Amino acid sequence: MMPARGLERVLRWPARLALGAAVVAITWLAMTPQPDPPGLGWDKLNHVAAFFVLAALAEAGWPGRVALPWRLAFLLGYGLLIELVQALLDYRQGSVLDFVADVAGIALWLALGWALGQRRGSPRHR
């Protein structure tokens, strides 16, 4: 069995590539006209899920507490940028509530990681 640190190292580049692909896909969905958008059936839940996944991939790609401020800055900046650009498009609209849902997805990921780390007694989450 591979130690956790070894597995973390092996997953770094695939997670980074997956994060890049997810950002491209989400940007395309956010910037193109979507008469019947794909997803989970509720726009805010789509935002929560998307940013939960982005936060997970960002942490897998750049793990550890040292990278946390950079991950948060990237994720929050990306969510804000999407809403600002959508506000400029004739066929889309920017939404504060969408950004709040983005933040909720990130917070949900962080809370899950904290809860699991506390449960395992992991020094990484103390």
How would you describe this structure in keywords?
126 residues; mainly alpha; 0% strand
Q: Care to give the gist of this entry?
A:
This protein is an all-alpha fold and 126 residues long. Helix content is 74%, strand content 0%.
Give the overall shape, derived from the CA principal axes. elongated
Q: Please state the CA-atom Rg, rounded to the nearest Å.
A: 16 Å
Order of helices and strands: HHHH
User: Percent of residues in helical segments?
Assistant: over 70%
Largest sheet: none
Q: What would you call the quaternary organization?
A: single chain
Distance between the termini: 26 Å
Mean pLDDT across all amino acids? 89
Number of DSSP strands?
0
Residues in β-strands, percent: under 5%
Low-confidence parts, pLDDT < 50 over ≥5 residues? none
- Count of alpha/pi helices: 4
Structural class by helix and strand composition: mainly alpha
Commentary on this structure:
The protein has 126 residues and is mainly α. The chain has a domain at 42-126. It contains 4 helices and no strands. The chain has helices spanning 4-31, 43-61, 68-88, 96-120.
